[in-house]
Amino acid sequence: MSQAKKKIVLVVGAVTVAVLLPFFLLQRRSSAHPGNGLKAAQVKASPVAATLQTYRNLGKAYYEQGKYSLAVGQFQKVVKSGHAIATDYMDLGMAFVQSNMLDKALAALTTAQQMAPHLVAIDYNLGILYKRQLRYALAEAQFKKVLAADAEDPATWFNLGTVYFAEHKLDLALESYEHLNRMGFNRGQNFYVASLFRTFTTLVRLGRRDDAEKILKIHQEYADRLPSVSLQNAALAKGKYGVILVPLPPPVQVGQGAAARPVAFRPISAELGISLPAVAGSAEADSSVEIKSASYSLDFARKHLVPLFGSSITTGNY
Question: Rounded CA gap, 187 and 154, in Å?
Answer without folding.
Answer: 8
